[in-house]
Amino acid sequence: MLTFPKILTLESFLSQYCDSPPYELADGELIDMEPTGPHETVSGKLATQIGIALTNAKQPWFIPRTCLIRPFANIATARRPDIIVLDESVLSYEPLWEKEPVITLGRSIKLVVEVVSTNWETDYARKVEEYALLGISEYWIVDYRGLGGVAFIGKPKQPTFTVCQLINEDYQQKQYRLEDLIYSPLLPQLQLCLNDILPR
Question: For the Putative restriction endonuclease domain, which residue ranges apply (predicted)?
Answer without folding.
Answer: 15-192
